[in-house]
């Protein structure tokens, strides 16, 4: 079961990073390359503990739906979402926000299990872990850009 950890320093407060990370509209913007759109549950605005969202997305050329639910939240330091339904066997995505003197370190801790047993583990080794790492890094960098350059216009 792969675990991907990515850290991104952002010149913005933990509160700004936390709010951007749980905003459905911002998520849609930062994942436009996979055509993600919210089609169920919370479809706009901020997600809270207990909320779920169903995303329609194209990953690896395959259109799919994935439902995630926020199971833990400690504003503005962390929240955890888990897959309720979707292509993975399971995933737990912990988002943490560590305040620093001149900003925040955003940390994605993504632990997942692929479906299909041995075939899924082979897919992880061949391409899936790298694909998911690139996806998380790209999203973190897009959030950084928004937080550092546009966050004041989003309130």
From TrEMBL:
GO terms for biological process: cell division. Keywords: Cell cycle, Cell division. Residues 10-117 form the Coenzyme Q-binding protein COQ10 START domain. This is Cell division protein. It comes from Fictibacillus phosphorivorans.
